[in-house]
């Protein structure tokens, strides 16, 4: 069984040097296109004005054109009368100055006596209210340099200097070739049947990225993991394009043929880059074209593109690649990272009080939502072992700072009504965004204590008193002044497969030998509730199969139950309904938001509370089922 | 004669409030489009995942799928043999885990004994190398909120969550209507004849700006200044669009009908805004559509768009308008500005030493090159009387900081070879840009003295010694250590109309009564040369008609001569040739670059010198004619 072994792994820096060398293989031609469609294209040569702008001396105001000398001596007291058609000619802004005239008197400064004569009450000076020829652009002067990306403003300057067509660099043609027998084309997906293949989406993401970077992408349909098919496709297509991106097939698996094909038909410069995600990337040459192997996991694919392909495209155009705006932030927790590998950690960023905090999103290279939800990237350099909570670091922002400043940062337990809240907030107060992170109820209170968030969502039962949340505040928040506002009451219960095939009726059935359970993580309100209920029933947790296995959200638990991997998990009705599961009620609990008093006057936090109190929010919550909104929006502390 | 009088001028702030109110008239619909074409579009509602991603438990590695429990106890010393097809099944990354299996062992960790059996040397743990269903996206969970502008990443997330089509907000339809009898369509321009109309370019600039801001523009052909034509066009088109931009016709001229039409057919909310450029803008409503009157001067048009239309479009989409990156800079000179008016000063920005400096570009509202050449905008607030050289202010950047950092700032006398130099620099060292400003030779030395630039270009003759430039250094630069590098020798002479119709032969002919002259500004090398030559000939300057009238560049002088407004001006051969003028040589002069020693080791400055010394630069200079490159690139001090 033959499998690939990575060449000695290259540093990202070295890989970028190689990618820059590969850029040298691409030579863009010229093409002539209409100026009015040229925005975003790149000039192939300097552009020199064909004509001047304005193309003649012209009136800068509506009025009469005169020869200034003929008006000398005119005053309020001694107005001068000039004859129309001879000494004075009516003129509008932009019209050419008639021969012999050298000044314009504004319409509001003259008095027309009759159809032949006009009275002037102030002398004009030469060139008064005249735009001289070439005031803006002088014929033959350089309007734009070569290798300049055309803006809307440039379109105006080009038209004014006599251009209707312009020579620009051709777009580099980029072949995007997805490979893998495990993949299905999006258009072939039939949602009414269970999927057995993974939807191919990377090629479409790359397609859009290539367009944004000025290239001309062409996507090839999925090619199966077959040496000859991949090889023949590459050989037949290579000559038609400037650059090849081949997706997947460059890992260390047995059916990863990309490398051996390029080794045979071209040359490999790097295989395996010290970056995460993105390690399996490959740099090579085939038919004298650069070929870049893009890893198959979505985040890896995007990172490999952005680090290795985007700079190459900018270099080919001879343009400077703009960097993302950087912001100094504090990580909300310690994040160890592998020495010798540059890691691209996706983070949410929010300004809480006077400080910007970055909370890491899931690190898996398969999790594209870690990019779509991210506010930016925290680069952990290869010589670092990670970042620390107390140490300021830089984040490269995906979104403008204005957007990030509107993030209300909520940390705590997950609940489906938070999505509703986020959406209504956006509907009512568009700029404000509720950025929520699921770390469980206790995690939320700890984040609040550390000042990392504006509000925490908790549903922590105090087993001694039967009271929710408030008994925990003193212990976890100390003297911090907070308000507690009820979000909802919600039903917790056992989620089981549809039609309850194993006939569960209560928590006691979890003791059955044929029942496997999935638990929530320690510190989550659901876990505390479960332990409380088990204690009331005198059930020993270790007797439950799966008690030790933990998931972090209701939906993750529901999803495992739905897939049949486990039989039951404790969760909320809305999650069960979402995945079409049966639900056996166990208890009703209170879910509150805890908000430090110091943030209560911040407009964005006020708007969150207003939205919770809106009629529409309560209506939408009730529509989910399993919720009670009788105290929603009430101040409980 | 009826003419418009502005309504009481509105502050820009008030105008923005009105524009925001007008946004409320626009209600976007929904449309369903393919996901793979949806980048840049805006979601009309929150998007909830149709399916989970991955859609099943799948292998995260190539290898064999097993039930972890069946491998317990396996070690290097006591490998366990499992039967293929029963206890173990070969699996590739992304493939679904077969029923009953819950772990994957990597291909590199197993040994295949024969076609039926595999040896395992280490126990697998449950869920090892498995991507659980929904690891990335759980069905029903919110993938994207409403009013979200779709990125390439989002395309991936949407496809993975089962979407092939998606509902987005429709694009606001924007009618762009240029008006003015003085205008000509770009396509109707015939460059072989002299132009008598101004090329209409504003509508095409607005067209591109609307596209960038997510709208769907439609441009109407030019409509003449005719009340009924404009009115009928507006009435017939209004219902087809969401927003009307009418260009020009909103000034105070007699033929400015926009306002009276809107007054008659709708309502005017503002006419005349305290902004510069952009004052004549107008805000109104017609057929219940917002109508915005865009001034006719190009910079006014763009500023009015960016301040009043762009925010409206963002608001209609419920998106936050991203702000430009801001940079703190020092102005290179005092700039008085009108109290009560917000001025948008276009500036070049460069980092010289450790400081960022902003040099103002021409302020005229007709000068579009003041935008195309600008690195950013310096906003002078309405309550300020201007900016001061010594006071730090903020600039909003048009270009990324990376690009601005590569600006080599040159100030001084203008010469056509500087365009050649800038272009070659870009060809040889793409990121570096020579940003040059024409303020004359003395102006260059003063800028150098103040630390505003990296290098100055001068051709200052010392009449006493006949030496160029070096005698001036002590006087103007004091003890500053500098290098002087020759750029070129060039011929100065009288530029006269083609075929020299007035038969000029030398400077003496400037005394003739029938000859009008145009001079260069005081402090320019050309002016000093002229005065020197006149003195040698004992000519009294005041005897020359036009001696007191000044222009700032060779090309401006040449352009006036070419238009026939004057008969002669002193300038360089290349300028005369550019405009097809005759040239009567007067003198040869030395044009040098003066560079402070502290900048000589900066890479970007080094590259400028290298480029000057290149063979290609000298060749291209010689091709212009009128230059001598025998000392080009030589260090003269």
How would you summarize what this structure contains?
By secondary structure, chain A is an alpha/beta fold. In chain A, strand 29 (407-412), helix 9 and strand 30 (433-438) form a beta-alpha-beta unit.
Give me some keywords for this one:
homodimer; 637 residues; alpha/beta; Molybdenum Cofactor Biosythetic Enzyme, Chain A; Molybdopterin biosynthesis moea protein, domain 2; Molybdopterin biosynthesis moeA protein, domain 3; nine-stranded mixed sheet; 37 strands; 28% strand; globular
What does it look like?
- 2 copies of one chain form a homodimer.
- Chain A is of the alpha/beta class and 637 residues long.
- Chain A has 5 domains: 12-26 and 172-317, MoaB/Mog-like domain (Molybdenum Cofactor Biosythetic Enzyme, Chain A); 30-53 and 136-169, Molybdopterin biosynthesis moea protein, domain 2; 58-131, Molybdopterin biosynthesis moeA protein, domain 3 (Beta Complex), CATH 2.170.190.11; 327-405, MoeA, C-terminal, domain IV (Beta-clip, Beta Barrel); 433-628, D-Maltodextrin-Binding Protein, domain 2 (3-Layer(aba) Sandwich).
- Chain A contains 16 helices and 37 strands.
- In chain A, helix 1 packs across helix 6, helix 3 (202-212) runs parallel beside helix 6 (298-317) and helix 4 packs across helix 5.
- The radius of gyration of chain A is 34 Å and the shape is globular.
- The model of chain A has no long low-confidence stretch (mean pLDDT 92).
- Chains A and B meet through strand 11, helix 2, strand 15, helix 3 and helix 7 of A and strand 11, helix 2, strand 15, helix 3 and helix 7 of B.
